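Researcher: Good morning. I'm working through a list of sequences from a screen, and I'd like to move beyond sequence-only analysis. For each chain I'm collecting a predicted structure so we can compare shapes side by side. This is the next one on the list. No need for commentary yet; just the structure.
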Amino acid sequence: MSNNQTMHRQRVPGASLERFAAEIMRAHGVDPQQIASVAAVLTWSELIGRANFGLSRLPILMRRVSAGLIRCPCRPEFEDSAPAMQLLDGDAGFGHHIVALVMKRAIELAHSHGVGVVGVRNSNFFGAGAYFVNMAAEAGMLGLALSNSFPKVTAHGGVKPVMGTNPFAFAAPAAFGERALMLDMATAAGAGSTIREYIARGLPLPEGIAIDSKGDPITDPAKVASGTMLPFGGAKGYGLALMVEILCGVITGAGICHGVGSMYGDFARSGDNGHFMLAIDVTRFMPMAVFRERMNALVMGIRGSNEDQEVLLPGEIRWRNHDENLEHGIPVEPDSMDVLDKLAEPYGIVPPWQQRRGKASSGT
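Model: Good morning. Structure tokens for this chain:
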């Protein structure tokens, strides 16, 4: 068994992490189609520095697979709503897999009709939305990805959770010499993964993120579950969260508010998360070269807004992480190695960091 007190952070090639994730899922009976999608999304999240959406999710995902709450295999079915619109029943599969299929379909629709809109019901947690909108940007599209989630966030002025962190992501094709612009954010003052990180590090939570049933600030992250998180920016974040809930839950037929199951706390039902994907073909408005020139003018204006320090674009730090981790390997922390060692050991799977240390498959 590994001992995280004696281990140090290691850099592991992304391909090795992706193979490891695939082996873990295969051992738990996940079908090949979903394995490919989920492993790719988890590894890409690690590459861009979003480890909280990476392989650290494998234990809870596999627990839900073992409980039959993520269906393997799943048989998603598309329904035509209009020439450029479709609705998908995700058959309770992995959200990562379902949304990869859906964004691909939205892009296909946009190629044919200029715009593609696909709603999803009966899905599960989908991970980092940036992955899916980047699919659109790579295809020369503007991309939008929304998802609702288990209620953790109150309405502006409320004291009880009624909506999830309800993330939304947006991406645009790159300007000349730039990378795709990516915005990926929660509509809550803090993401659920942020709370878990504060708990793991034993740090107090800043005021303005969560409140108790009386409306008083919560600074102990372990007590957030008994209270509620706040929307970011007060009424503005609340309005955006409500928009996500309507587009992902109400019009798709997915779970709404407490109709969405908690990934970590509800083992009596599937998530029934709803998603909303949009792809817009830029070339229906102007030639791509013209779009890139106009994006370039916008970027130059933004970068020139402060002569004394660098002004970054949304997603720029993620792309820098991506390039560094692709070249040098993805950093894996000792605590993560320890958790994943325990997940792999019963199946005789050797994690890549153990292979690099020349350890036996048992981890001893």
